[in-house]
Amino acid sequence: MKSFQGMNRVQGMTLIELLVALALSAVIAIGTFNLLRTSINTRDTLGAQAESTSQLSRAMRLLEQDFIQFSPQRPVKDAFGDFAPAMLMDADGLALTHNGWAWSPFIAYERSTEQRVVYRLAEPGSELCDLLEDDLINDQGGCLIRSYKAHLDDDGSLRWYHQRLLRPLKAIDWRFLTYDPETKSTEYQSEPPTSDPRTGLLLTRLIGVEISLTLGTGPIHQRLFAVPSLPPLDQGALP
């Protein structure tokens, strides 16, 4: 009988030993949970950064393609018969006409190889930038939208097609690099060069367009695109 009781004392665990084992298990479980949570947060952060970088790269690529193929000699006519210049800055955004719109055999309708596009910042909750379930993203800014039509001259029946390029975006700023043949100098302007109302010719020459994108996460990305342009009133050579 004494030998059996002694065997139980040797094989069993005391209450203190049990509590220590439970505490160690709890510490290991908490550590594992924290490690898993950190891994998930890191994955989500890297995924969001990768998505943001991908969107930014695509937006810059489209901007570059449109600007380097800018068609300065092609104004467009609206539904009222009024003509707008090849590049126009107004409350709706920056509109321009560009060449190089590739034709596709899968399109059932005819269209020009030139395209009219508009770049704008759409506010969150608007028709072009719907609200997301994540209020944090909604508060960080809106959407960079690229809109285009199938034809340049509008008879009132054309519709706009919209592409969402970047989100969230706080601000978009434009500057236009011009060359003045009289002073033989370059300067930035807040709007594209306008023509002389008496002659219809340009007084200065547009040679570049600068865009600044302020992302919702804080960074500002700036690019300067060279553009084809018509000669100004004076045929002065560029510096």
Automatic annotation (TrEMBL):
A GO cellular component entry from the record: type II protein secretion system complex
Record keyword Repeat present: no
Keywords for this protein: Cell inner membrane, Cell membrane, Membrane, Methylation, Transmembrane, Transmembrane helix
Membrane topology, from the record: Single-pass membrane protein
GO BP terms, alphabetized: protein secretion by the type II secretion system
Entry's localization field: Cell inner membrane
Entry's family note: Belongs to the GSP J family.
Identification of the protein by name: Type II secretion system protein J
Organism this protein belongs to: Reinekea forsetii
Source lineage: Bacteria, Pseudomonadati, Pseudomonadota, Gammaproteobacteria, Oceanospirillales
